[in-house]
Model the fold of this input.
Amino acid sequence: MNYPDAVNYLFGLQKFGWKLGLDRMQRLLAELGHPERSARFVHIAGTNGKGSVAAMIGSILLHAGCRTGLYTSPHLVDVRERIQVDTQMISPAEFAEITTQIEPHIKKLECTFFEAMTALALTYFAKRKVKIAVLEVGLGGRLDATNVVSPDLCVITSISPDHTEHLGSSLQQIAGEKAGILKAGVPCVMGAMPSEAEDSIKEHAANISSPLVKAGDHCKVSLRAETIYGSKFHLNIDHFYDDQIEIPLAGKHQIENAGIAATCCFVLSQKGLKISQQALKDGFKNMNWPARLQVVSKSPFVVVDVAHNLDSMSRLVDFLTTFFPNGKIAFVFGLLKDKNYKEITKLIIPLAEKTFIVQAKTSRALDKEKIAQEFAANGSTVSTEDSVGQGVKKALAAYRDNSVICVTGSHYVVGEAWNEIKYLTGTDNMFNL
Done:
């Protein structure tokens, strides 16, 4: 296969949907010679924050001199964003080569898109001889395709309602599914979460003798400065680090995520990885994780954010009200079918001067008319657009100068919006991959 053939083939596997379970993945990796045994791993689950924490850890490990793999999902613009070594995306040629190599096995086992992508990533990491790879769980944890590795460290960033049709309706059930990545004798770093979820994880960890490390017990952070472009704060971790940190990610929640990532590096250092204070500082400062409360234009202000559930949307609203308190905001907004759209729209409506409702090009997208009806029922001004790009174009035509436009609702919406934003604003500062 060439690269376009490989991409088309893999996306064609989406017809199989999600098939949670590890049997196919274990058989597939066995047929591929067990590439998952070639590296050390950090395995990260959580409702929100797991991608940011993964990117932070990956950057720190790179600055510590480790050849580092990073596997995340979903992507924004290019599927190769999901698979990186030392912050560089897999090349089109290697993507096509490995897809060709694993295709007969994928076909034989009727693997899903995510299973195939995970196998591709693990095979690539083995080929590139990475020392340690950071894996972000796709969905849940216990039955996720990534749950086939023997990690040095497990991480659970946060627990809140999401994907309830797969993971259960209670926080206890959701936490139990995510705790399924824990392994006997392997430490797990845990972020702050509701007591119901924390108790569920503690019980699971105790049952399998997985040492729990609460980030808040070891890591103390003190905010020094917060801007629309990032934050500076003082970080102290048990005789490991005591100095100022700068991160290019906006929002107080990213400081919490940085505390989790720093605690993970502290635990990894205790397991033999040499991570200096300078590597920690440089890793945070130079990390790249686009479309998280990211201002990509200043005239008008254009904010892009992949918030897609109640928790992440609450954080977006907090950011907008903190830094843009003096005016209503124009939203370009669309959601996926499995989201609590009625509750999410209630968060946005008080801030919205006008909302351009869009429907991303995916079968998972929620009907834009449903969203529009919810806004209209609450007295909010809306228009439904033919495409994400059209929504962005109309918003940028109507709102100029010191106006604020926010593009949000899903990775799909932000990804589709990017080309239009880039063309109309002349900015090219969103992606550095």
Observations:
- The longest strand covers residues 219-227.
- DSSP finds 16 helices and 17 strands in the chain.
